[in-house]
Design brief:
Glycerol-3-phosphate (1)-acyltransferase, 7 strands, 248 residues, alpha/beta, 7-stranded mixed beta sheet, disordered C terminus
């Protein structure tokens, strides 16, 4: 189990209701204004009506450090997120990120403390937890295989999964460049679904993670689907066959 982070509060979340702490609201407002100034209407967000009012896992692909900033700035309800432990480098940052409903995780390790916190968040009546299913940023457009741990969390939490696709951020904030470029950015919310919960753990954890990833890939342009291009094409062919046969 990872060691506690200095400055991170023992009591998390900071608030017990569905309202954002003051730190959260200030950071969200600043992010919202800055992103709109930079991108204007070129930042397009669709499908917000699909966001559940209750708990859910917000499952998304990951292309840029800009992705979590967009979620934090524009998600219309209170949202929680895991953040790499390195972001909680000192007491001030730990205090700030805790107030923004972020909690630390040791990437690349079975961080039981982070997993327990994630499940506690999901058990809340309004616990919405952001997950980047690939575990880290893709080095280029095209999804990588989803992490098995995502499937484990999906099955243990037993709450709706909200697939979300983002693209264009990899061109807006290019690695090695300090300033963002003004390009088109899209963020699309799909339809929530319930994850499977039965069967052998190892097999079904990966299967559940892949299920979420395919739903995300189906929202992406073809060039961004990566390893899930073929499953998405198969789903489209099956749906077309049902239409032709009159099944739907």
């Amino acid at each position: 189990m990872s060691s506690p982070v200095r400055g991170f509060p023992e009591r998390f979340p900071v608030r017990d209701d569905d309202r954002r702490p003051l730190r959260y609201r200030i950071v969200q407002l600043v992010g919202h204004v800055v992103l709109r100034v930079i991108f204007g209407r070129r930042l397009r967000i669709e499908g917000q009506q699909n966001i559940p009012t209750g708990p859910c896992l917000v499952a998304c692909n990951h292309l840029s450090n800009l992705d979590p900033v967009i979620f934090g700035s524009f998600f219309p309800r209170t949202l929680f997120a895991m953040a790499k432990r390195e972001l909680f480098a000192n007491r001030l940052l730990a205090w700030l990120w805790a107030g923004c409903n972020c909690f630390p995780v040791d990437r690349g390790t079975p961080d039981r403390r982070a997993l327990r916190t994630a499940l506690e968040v999901c058990a809340r009546p309004t616990g919405r937890l952001l997950l980047f299913v690939e575990g880290t940023r893709a080095t280029r457009p095209g999804m990588n295989r989803a992490e098995q741990g995502v499937g484990f969390l999906m099955r243990r939490a037993g709450i709706p999964v909200l697939p979300v696709a983002v693209w264009g951020t990899e061109r807006a904030l290019v690695k090695g460049h300090r300033l963002p470029r003004r390009v088109d950015i899209h963020l699309v919310y799909g339809k929530p679904f319930m994850p499977p919960r039965e069967g052998p753990a190892t097999t079904d954890n990966q299967a559940a993670a892949d299920l979420a990833a395919v739903q995300i890939a189906a929202l992406l342009p073809a060039d961004y689907r990566g390893v899930y291009a073929e499953p998405v094409a198969s789903l489209a062919n099956e749906a077309q066959a049902r239409v032709v046969s009159g099944a739907i």
